[in-house]
Design goal:
The complex is a heterodimer of chains A (112) and B (115).
Chain A lengths: L8 E5 L4 E6 L7 E8 L6 E6 L4 E2 L4 E4 L5 E6 L8 E9 L13 E6 L1
Parallel strand pairs in A: 1-9
Antiparallel strand pairs in A: 2-7, 3-4, 3-8, 5-6, 6-7, 8-9
Chain B lengths: L4 E3 L2 E4 L5 E6 L6 E7 L5 E8 L2 E4 L8 E4 L6 E5 L8 E8 L9 E2 L3 E5 L1
Parallel strand pairs in B: 2-11
Antiparallel strand pairs in B: 1-3, 3-8, 4-5, 4-9, 5-6, 7-8, 9-10, 9-11
The chains are: A mainly beta (112), B mainly beta (115).
């Protein structure tokens, strides 16, 4: 089972920031928070990941709370092409277990 | 910089035939993962391989399914005696090293249809 909880769906107006929350209250000290998205039926796309500190790249920003029990993915200026299912995943570093556990994710609909 | 490549993109097989799905990881990546997505469902992990080794096959069905990642060439997911329930999208991902710090990059998938 997924170790994360996300809202099933969200809407966002085009050009506005999309803030996608994720709860991971049982996260362990050696687990990273990853975000992926799947646009329609394409292969999942890596977005960003972090351990403790906030992270930013060309796609998004990741804000992790100080207790690491929740995080927020921010798409600063959402476009119609950002409509997708967004997955928040926790995954341990250094283990032999390689799998990412995909939950149901949040279906983000960006509307004009 | 080529991404993860999978072929074929679409595969149709009759019940009882064999399906072979190929995955070429990103250049420099030596870790490969296979996932399956049934219609209207989420992605489920199947198997994690390094060159010539299966590291974790906890998600692989016990019968009819096998995977390999030889020293040379692509990773192969083989499904013997396919049944209608095997119809799904099969995604391959690769990473630079063991997962955790290193993100996985996914291919476009192979859509298997069993008739």
């Amino acid at each position: 089972d997924a170790k994360t909880t996300q809202p099933p769906s969200m809407d966002c107006a085009e050009g506005r920031a999309a803030n996608l929350p994720c709860n991971h209250s049982t996260i362990s000290g050696n687990e990273y928070v990853y975000w992926y998205r799947q646009i329609h039926s394409q292969g999942p796309q890596y977005i960003i990941h972090g351990l403790k500190n906030n992270e930013t790249n060309e796609m998004a920003s990741l804000i992790i709370t100080e207790d690491r029990k929740s995080s927020t993915l921010i798409l600063p200026h959402a476009t119609l092409r950002d409509t997708a299912v967004y997955y928040c995943i926790v995954n341990a570093y250094g283990g032999s277990q390689g799998n990412l556990i995909f939950g149901k994710g949040t279906k983000l609909s960006v509307k004009p | 910089n080529a991404g993860v490549m999978q072929n074929p993109r679409h595969l149709v097989r009759r019940r009882g035939q064999e399906a072979r799905l190929r995955c070429s990881p990103m250049k420099g990546h030596s870790h490969v993962y296979w996932y399956r997505q049934l219609p209207e469902e989420g992605l489920k992990f199947m198997v994690y391989l390094q060159k010539e080794n299966i590291i974790d096959e906890s998600g692989m069905p016990k019968e009819r399914f096998s995977a390999e990642f030889p020293k040379e060439g692509p990773s192969i997911l083989r499904i013997q005696q396919v049944v209608r329930g095997d119809s799904a999208a099969y995604f391959c991902a690769s990473s630079l090293a063991g997962t955790g710090v290193y993100e996985q990059y996914f291919g476009p998938g192979t859509r298997l249809t069993v008739t």
